[in-house]
Amino acid sequence: MDYQKVLDTIHEELSHRDVYGKVASYIPELAKVDPKKFGMHLYKGKGEHYSFGDSIEKFSIQSISKVFTLSMAMQLLGEDLWDRVDVEPSGDPFNSLTQLEYEKGIPRNPFINAGALVICDILVSNLDDPKKDLLEFVRKICDNDSIEYDHKIAASEKSTGYRNYALVNYMKALGNIKNEVEPIVDFYFHQCSLAMSCEELAKAFMIFANNGKMLETGEKILSKTKVKRINALMQTCGFYDEAGEFSFEVGLPGKSGVGGGIVAIHPAQYSVAVWSPILNEKGNSELGMAALEKLTTMTGLSIF
After folding, report:
1. Burial bucket for residue 71 (CB in 10 Å: 0-12, 13-18, 19+)
2. Residues forming beta bridges with residue 302, ordered by sequence position
3. DSSP secondary-structure letter at 83?
4. Which of 15, 160, 248, 297 lies 20 to 30 Å from 97, alpha-carbon distance?
5. Could you give the C-alpha distances from 213 to 65, 114, 130, 218, 275, in angstroms and in order?
6. Looking at the annotation, which residues are catalytic?
7. What letter would DSSP give residue 28?
8. Whole-angstrom distance between the N-terminal and C-terminal Cα of the chain?
9. Cα 64 to chain center, whole Å?
10. 3-state SS of the chain: helix, strand, coil percent to 5?
11. pLDDT tens digits, residue range 106-119?
């Protein structure tokens, strides 16, 4: 398969496409991002890298980070984790308070904001320095010590993050939050501010395509069972209330973020990341969704 030719075709076809969405503006720093940025990187392993456009420029990965924190929490708690967060698609916006009320404080899944905040609470409870430990985890699986938080983004999120404070306070009132509110939301805002490129994300996510092992070294990071669970959650819940559409159009487990990034994996085949900041009405990258649909259509490879 000539993946570079496939990616070049995607770039050529989509670079001239009219895009009707908008850049995320509810986080002031994200509103400053150039809407014309567009990059993609596919990592096949063993030195096989294919890319186009702005694939090495770092951006705020936002909710893509929830896959990393979930992985860490699963290592710490195992199956006990699911007593505090469910594994069902939400069908509602990622920051819904209404659904949390219906569910009596148990979030639908770990990828909506409420679920990710419970994961943060678990990590705050079990780690001495969760921000440091998250950085170390991501740097390790990416094999790149340059990964950092974007502190401007974190501060910007904190300045407007009232709904996330509300979610934590509501779950604390219902007994599903164990720590004080401030360290949880501080960790959450920092994890979302992680700055990574498409190339770095594709490398980091290869463990989910490779049965939990780092491809270059063979080191085992996660068990096969945990990878199976995480990939299943990415397939069913990785795009909030557009997860069904992504499965229908693309057919790969993946995770999006409102910074315009999307990462997807094809088990035993590749990991791929795409970035375009313009979001559709569901909060997913409009060009990113289209690029990944073209990738699986042109290659004829999906998990289905």
Report:
1. buried
2. none
3. G
4. 248
5. 19, 29, 23, 6, 25
6. 63, 66, 188, 240, 258
7. T
8. 18
9. 1
10. 50, 15, 35
11. 999 999 999 999 99
Known binding residues for substrate: 63, 113, 157, 164, 188, 240, 258
Write out the two tokens for 122. 């678990």
Length of the chain: 304
Name the binding residues: 63, 113, 157, 164, 188, 240, 258
Three-state SS at 48: strand
Distances (CA, A) of 23 to 59, 140, 258: 13, 31, 8
On whether the CB atoms of residues 196 and 142 are closer than 8 A, the answer is: yes
What's the DSSP call for residue 213? B
Question: Using CA atoms, how far apart are residues 80 and 222, in angstroms rounded to an integer?
Answer: 16
Query: Within 10 A of 5 (CB to CB), how many other CB atoms are there?
Result: 11
CATH architecture group of domain 3-299? 3-Layer(aba) Sandwich (3.40)
β-strand partners of 59: 196
Phi, psi torsion values for 268, nearest 5 degrees: 70, 5
Q: At residue 100, what is the residue type?
A: L
- Alpha-carbon gap, residue 117 to 98, rounded angstroms: 16
Listed by start position, the domains of the chain span: 3-299
Q: Which amino acid is at 243?
A: A
Per-residue pLDDT at 104? 86
Q: Enter the tokens of residue 225.
A: 């069972």
